[in-house]
């Protein structure tokens, strides 16, 4: 007879397997109907529905997300051929300019979110800037802000971008037939292990060097370096890429906790509205710049979308856009924003403390 602890562990494992199978089934259905990014969007929406309705409340292990990130990042790096790198250098001014434009849009949205949701500016900026929800929440706690609204807003932003951007592009360009959906060719196990080994080595090295988001940036750098040398690794087979997307989609969907949304009140509406505004602003700028630069509007919209680099790289691949260039847009934004977010937030926090003191407080009651 198993011990109580063993029985509980088995029950938890069975429930985790059930959630992943449910997500995989939703991904298969999304692929059957020809949805863009089906193995990400399907599990995301299905898992979110389980958690929002309270059917499931178990925690998806955070350690599962790096598995999906390593797979996606190492595959994205394969696109960085020598010719691709030469193209990226030629577009450097555009990459930097669009990164700054996206940051400015985030600042405008943060000011609106602070007013509508009654958040202090520190929390509003952390909720609106395109960055990792985990890193934003950690920074919120550091400055005595409630991390709940920050996590909610960041999760709504990423999920909305992942779902709305590819669907909108499909609706404008036309929904392709199911047999036209792009898949990667089936390859042998040795090629898969080689690319996975490169990705894991890059992830471990980046983690040891304390690089932000090491499980994406590390494998991406390692795979890109190998490809830039002209020794391009083979792509993962479609089944491996689909499993990685299921892992990421289930994890993201599980962050839609019923308790978090129930306690958020009008913050939910404010987050959705400001996210849509952010998407509208970045998309308008992208379309205008695409006409001026003579580039595809789809490419520019994906490049400036305020979503995660992992999800946008997948979307670009699925929609047949230039994965290397779109990834470069997002990485440029990451390397410009991430080192500067701490001092920007510190400056905003100090401003609020001074303003609060002038209003008669002691500066310690910021929410």
Which key phrases capture this entry?
367 residues, mainly alpha, 17 helices, 75% helix, globular, disordered C terminus, transmembrane helix, plasmid, monooxygenase activity
Topology:
Blueprint: H1 4-32, H2 38-52, H3 64-77, H4 82-90, H5 92-116, H6 121-128, H7 133-142, H8 147-173, H9 189-208, H10 214-228, H11 238-254, H12 258-264, H13 266-293, H14 297-304, H15 309-318, H16 323-337, H17 341-358
Helix pairs in contact: 1-2, 1-11, 2-11, 3-9, 3-10, 3-11, 5-6, 5-13, 5-16, 6-7, 6-8, 6-17, 7-8, 8-13, 9-10, 13-14, 14-16, 15-16
Reading the helices and strands in chain order gives HHHHHHHHHHHHHHHHH
State the secondary-structure class.
Answer: mainly alpha
Number of strands: 0
Please compute the radius of gyration using only Cα atoms.
21 Å
What do the pLDDT scores average to? 80
Number of domains: 1
Which percent bin holds the helix content? over 70%
Low-confidence stretches: 179-184, 362-367
**Whole-Å distance between the termini?**
50 Å
Global geometry:
globular
**Main sheet record:** none
The number of helical elements comes to 17
Please indicate the percent range of residues in DSSP E strands (runs of 2 or more): under 5%
């Amino acid at each position: 007879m198993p011990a109580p602890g063993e029985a509980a562990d088995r029950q938890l494992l069975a429930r985790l397997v059930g959630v992943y199978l449910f997500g995989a089934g939703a991904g298969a259905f999304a692929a059957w109907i020809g949805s863009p990014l089906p193995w990400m969007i399907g599990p995301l929406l299905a898992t979110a529905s389980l958690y929002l309705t309270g059917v499931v409340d178990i925690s998806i292990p955070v350690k599962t997300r790096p598995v999906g990130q390593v797979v996606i990042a190492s595959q994205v790096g394969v696109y960085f051929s020598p010719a691709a790198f030469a193209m990226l250098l030629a577009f450097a001014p555009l990459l930097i300019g669009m990164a700054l434009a996206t940051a400015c849009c985030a600042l405008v949205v943060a000011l609106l979110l602070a007013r509508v949701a009654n958040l202090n500016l520190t929390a509003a900026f952390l909720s609106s800037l395109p960055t990792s929800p985990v890193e934003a929440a950690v920074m919120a706690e550091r400055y005595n802000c409630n991390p709940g609204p920050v996590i909610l807003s960041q999760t709504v932003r990423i999920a909305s971008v992942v779902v709305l951007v590819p669907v909108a592009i499909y609706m404008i360009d036309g929904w392709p037939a199911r047999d036209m959906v792009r898949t990667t060719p089936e390859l042998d196990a040795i090629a898969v292990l080689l690319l996975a080994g490169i990705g894991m080595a890059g992830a471990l090295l980046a983690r040891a060097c304390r690089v932000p988001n090491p499980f994406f940036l590390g494998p991406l750098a390692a795979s890109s370096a190998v490809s830039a040398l002209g020794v391009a690794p083979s792509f993962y087979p479609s089944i491996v890429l689909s499993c990685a997307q299921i892992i990421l989609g289930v994890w993201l969907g599980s962050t839609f906790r019923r308790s978090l949304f129930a306690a958020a009140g009008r913050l939910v509406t404010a987050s959705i509205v400001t996210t849509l505004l952010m998407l509208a602003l970045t998309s308008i700028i992208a379309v205008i710049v695409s006409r001026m630069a003579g580039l595809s509007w789809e490419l520019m919209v994906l490049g400036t979308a305020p979503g995660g680099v992992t999800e946008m790289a997948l979307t670009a691949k699925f929609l047949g856009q230039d994965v290397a260039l779109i990834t470069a847009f997002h990485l440029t934004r990451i390397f410009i924003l991430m080192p500067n977010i701490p001092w920007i937030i510190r400056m905003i926090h100090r401003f609020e403390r001074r303003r609060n003191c002038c209003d008669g407080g002691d500066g310690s009651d910021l929410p």
